[in-house]
């Protein structure tokens, strides 16, 4: 990552994003604006309930924004005229609870979307999947069912499932929070490798040490807004707002 | 003792052997089986469609009119006796057209069963974690594709015992087919009774056949369930 990210093209551009859930008094997101450039690894941190997941889930419209726009590769995906299903193919997502398909083998989990949506043949799809499985060290589990895997294995498979669509960006919502501590490392290793390969990533996490190490930029959210965003050194060593100072003092 | 046995043999001969009366039973069983199988197919197809419309509406708020029609269908069908529905379809709807009674029966029992299948399948769809839908959608599958490839197969497995139960209920309910002069298993036994004036023996035989088929079905559904369970989870 020697290139200057500021020169890279903007992949996602978020403008004045708001989200209010039915029956909630306050906005979960209250005017969020930011840009995510090609190759950036953006971490999103903040206290519980600050809107991190909502922000991330708006990026592929799993949550429908109440207001504001999201340009993905220049196209406003909040505009109903645009087919969100086409854009979602290029936006990989990894969930806290893995959400693998339990009625399919690992291989089928990995190949169903490329075959049905991208029109790949079974052979092509399985070849791609096998290469990626190899990379995450799970080539021998292709025929297993998800319930036969450990949490760490499940999450690595879930990452591969998203990668099989050859996405332009990967979204992670607390990918290690549901894991036993001894399995966190194997998942973080896969994510680290992805970052080193210049994958554009947006990661919601509580793993501060990992954020410090891998992030190109960290967003701090509170009360549905981005309070501060900076590269890791600046973010941790020189926090400006009181909210961030008190947040950092609590977690370190 | 031997008197009793002789009496039994006589009645058996009279009810089943004489004039080849056992044909009423075998033909009746065949009719019952045909109605049940085709009504099941129709009912499952209808039930899945209704369940998908209803849960799509619950999830997205769309399909308001289709959902309303489904709810009327469910309320009417589940709120009236199947034999009344059968008679209305036979004498009311198809009165003026010459149509196979078998088709009338299949439609009546299929439409009836569909209402129960729909609610079974809907509960199965609702039992699937919402993360499954989100995972499917996040890959780029449409709502319909996610249902077909991801949600329905899992829901189907969860509701298989309930569907097996519905099949058994359906089989027994076809016993009112005689109301539109179909010679199903029950009617077959009744015809023998009207010829021999012996109620007990033909009706006990009919009951025994129903029971045997039901036990067989329970066994088969149980095996299918175990097969599906072993294949994963
Ligand atoms: N589906 C929903 N319906 C209603 N309110 C919701 C829903 N999802 C989130 N919220 C509310 O929106 C706010 C932001 O939630 P969000 O899940 O984005 O927070 P978060 O920063 O991800 O928190 P955490 O660290 O606990 O995951 C919270 O007040 C939450 O209660
Ligand atoms: Mg969250």
Q: Give the overall shape of chain B.
A: elongated
Largest sheet of chain B: none
Class by helix and strand content of chain A? alpha/beta
Q: What is the string of SSEs of chain A from the N terminus onward?
A: EEEHEEHEHHHEHEHEEHH
Structural class of chain B: mainly alpha
**DSSP helical segment count of chain A:** 9
* Cα-to-Cα separation, first versus last residue of chain A: 28 Å
Please give the number of β-strands of chain A. 10
| Average pLDDT rating of chain B | 92
What is the total tally of β strands of chain B?
0
User: What's the quaternary structure here?
Assistant: heterodimer
Helicity of chain B, in percent? over 70%
Portion of residues in helices of chain A? Answer: 25-40%
Roughly what fraction of the amino acids of chain A lie in strands?
A: 15-25%
What's the overall average pLDDT of chain A, rounded?
A: 95
Bound molecules: adenosine-5'-triphosphate, magnesium ion
Specify the overall morphology of chain A.
Answer: globular
Q: State the low-pLDDT regions of chain B, or none.
A: none
Q: Most extensive interface, residues per chain? A: A-B, 27 and 19 residues
**Which strand-content bin applies to the residues of chain B?**
under 5%
């Amino acid at each position: 990552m020697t290139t200057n990210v500021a020169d890279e093209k903007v992949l996602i551009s978020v403008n004045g994003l708001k989200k209010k859930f039915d029956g909630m008094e306050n906005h979960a997101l209250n005017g969020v604006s930011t840009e995510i450039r090609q190759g950036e690894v953006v971490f999103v941190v903040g206290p519980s309930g600050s809107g991190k997941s909502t922000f991330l889930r708006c990026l592929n419209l799993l949550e429908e924004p109440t207001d504001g726009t999201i340009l993905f590769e220049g196209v406003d995906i909040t505009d109903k005229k645009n087919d969100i299903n086409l854009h979602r193919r290029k936006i990989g997502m990894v969930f806290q609870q893995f959400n693998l398909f339990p009625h399919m083998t690992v291989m089928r989990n990995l190949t169903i979307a490329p075959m049905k949506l991208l029109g790949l043949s079974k052979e092509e799809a399985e070849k791609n999947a096998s290469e990626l499985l190899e990379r995450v060290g799970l080539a021998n589990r292709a025929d297993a069912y998800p319930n036969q895997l450990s949490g760490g294995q499940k999450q690595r498979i879930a990452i591969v499932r998203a990668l099989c669509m050859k996405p332009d960006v990967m979204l992670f919502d607390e990918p290690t929070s549901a894991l036993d501590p001894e399995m966190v490392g194997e998942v973080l290793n896969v994510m680290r490798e992805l970052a080193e390969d210049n994958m554009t990533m947006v990661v919601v996490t509580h793993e501060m040490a990992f954020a410090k190490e891998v992030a190109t930029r960290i967003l701090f959210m509170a009360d549905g807004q981005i309070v501060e965003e900076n590269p890791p050194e600046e973010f941790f060593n020189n926090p400006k707002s009181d909210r961030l100072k008190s947040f950092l003092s609590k977690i370190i | 003792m031997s008197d009793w046995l002789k009496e039994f043999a006589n009645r058996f001969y009279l009810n089943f052997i004489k004039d080849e009366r056992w044909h009423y039973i075998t033909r009746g069983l065949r009719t019952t089986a045909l109605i049940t199988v085709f009504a099941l197919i129709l009912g499952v197809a209808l039930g899945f469609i209704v369940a998908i419309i209803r849960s799509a509406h619950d999830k997205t708020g769309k399909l308001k009119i289709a959902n309303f029609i489904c709810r009327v269908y469910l309320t009417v069908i589940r709120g009236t006796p199947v034999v009344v529905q059968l008679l209305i379809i036979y004498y009311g709807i198809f009165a003026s057209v010459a149509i196979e009674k078998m088709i009338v029966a299949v439609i009546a029992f299929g439409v009836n069963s569909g209402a129960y299948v729909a609610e079974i399948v809907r509960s199965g769809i609702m039992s699937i974690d919402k993360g499954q839908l989100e995972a499917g959608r996040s890959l780029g599958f449409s709502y319909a594709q996610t249902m077909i490839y991801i949600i329905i197969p899992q829901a189907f497995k969860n509701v298989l015992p309930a569907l097996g139960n519905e099949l058994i209920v359906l089989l027994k309910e076809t016993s009112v087919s005689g109301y539109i002069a179909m010679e199903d298993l029950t009617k077959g036994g009744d015809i023998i009774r009207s010829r021999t004036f012996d109620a007990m023996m033909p009706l006990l035989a009919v009951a025994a056949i129903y029971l045997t088929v039901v036990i067989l079905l329970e066994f088969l559904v149980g095996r299918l369930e175990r097969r599906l369970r072993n294949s994963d989870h």
